[in-house]
Design a protein that fits this description.
Layout lengths: L7 E5 L9 E5 L5 E5 L9 E5 L10 E5 L1 E7 L2 E6 L6 E9 L2 E7 L1 H6 L17 E6 L13 E6 L6 E5 L2 E9 L1 H10 L1 H10 L4 E5 L14 H14 L5 E3 L3 H27 L5
Parallel strand pairs: 10-11, 13-14, 14-15
Antiparallel strand pairs: 1-2, 1-5, 2-3, 3-4, 4-9, 6-7, 7-8, 8-9, 10-12, 12-13
Length: 278
């Protein structure tokens, strides 16, 4: 049995001039203290901001919410309250336009706030539609005929497949066969490509083969390829190199990655719109 987490504490903001009247203490680590508009995201996403002071010694507590569980998954902190109604919510900590954006939401509120987003499992990131841009130099390009996506051709600054929101590139994928991966590693070309990919908002390399296939290579020493691959991931950790087993799964992984990137970007834009006016 795991230990019961500390409660989620909500108090009045000691700064009477703040446009965010409450402060909330999230019981993770030493505690995350945020300023917030509401005491729970009942009808809309609630904009939050980092509190610029420690949790008060004598807070004016508005509500103490006992928790069953609390966990962090990437940018999201999921909480489950120990009650039958209004039990689940999450804090999303992301970045948009160079600044941190934080909002508090429930699944129902998040879905209602995105009228053009549906969540059947066949769609990437829950998006109703995904357009994938294919680089004009890509030979024998993936068609994504089994995914709910359309493709257009355009010259990309780097990579083979990309997703855009309006005219902003939000993610890019470099596609590799195992032979191409091995050759580009040993020639040094992949290092330059990874450096370029690291400059993109989100990027990945996807390989149409299994990692174990490296050790079956005959024209190059497998250990050398494995070592160079490890060095590349250490040097450019923001650009994962994913082995997707075969062409079909590599295409599916790319579809999901690009869809998730578009959804994350849209969530950041929505958080920016929730910023209080100066």
């Amino acid at each position: 049995m795991g230990s019961v987490p500390e409660p989620l504490l909500i108090a009045r903001n000691p700064d009477p001039d703040s446009s965010l009247p409450f402060i909330v203490r999230i019981p993770l680590g030493a505690g995350i203290v945020l300023r917030t508009r509401e005491t729970w995201p009942r009808t809309a996403k609630v904009y939050c901001h980092r509190h610029d002071a420690a949790w008060p010694d004598d807070p004016d507590i508005v509500e103490t919410i006992e928790l069953r569980s609390i966990s962090r998954r990437g940018p999201a902190i999921d909480i489950e309250a120990d009650r039958t109604r209004e039990a689940r919510s999450q804090f999303v900590l992301t970045r948009a336009r160079g600044r941190e954006m934080i909002f508090w939401q429930t699944a129902r509120v998040a879905k209602a706030a995105r009228p053009n987003v549906d969540l059947p499992t066949a769609r990437a990131g829950g998006l109703e539609h995904l357009e994938i841009v294919v680089d004009t130099r890509e030979r024998y390009a993936w068609k994504f005929t089994h995914q709910q996506a359309t493709t257009t051709k355009r010259a990309l600054p780097v990579g083979d497949y990309a997703s855009f929101v309006d005219d902003m590139l939000v993610a890019v994928v470099e596609r590799k066969s195992l032979e191409d991966l091995a050759n580009s590693l040993t020639s040094g070309r992949l290092a330059y490509r990874l450096a370029d990919l690291a400059g993109m908002p989100r990027a990945s390399v996807v390989v149409e083969d299994r990692y174990s296939s490296i050790f079956k290579l005959g024209h190059v020493r497998p250990a050398l390829v494995a070592d160079m691959l490890g060095e590349c991931q250490v040097r450019w950790p923001s650009v994962p190199i994913v082995f997707a087993e075969n062409r079909k799964l590599a295409q599916e992984w790319t579809f999901r990655f690009l869809g998730a990137a578009v959804r994350e970007h849209l969530m950041g834009e929505e958080a920016h719109r929730l910023l209080p006016e100066d």
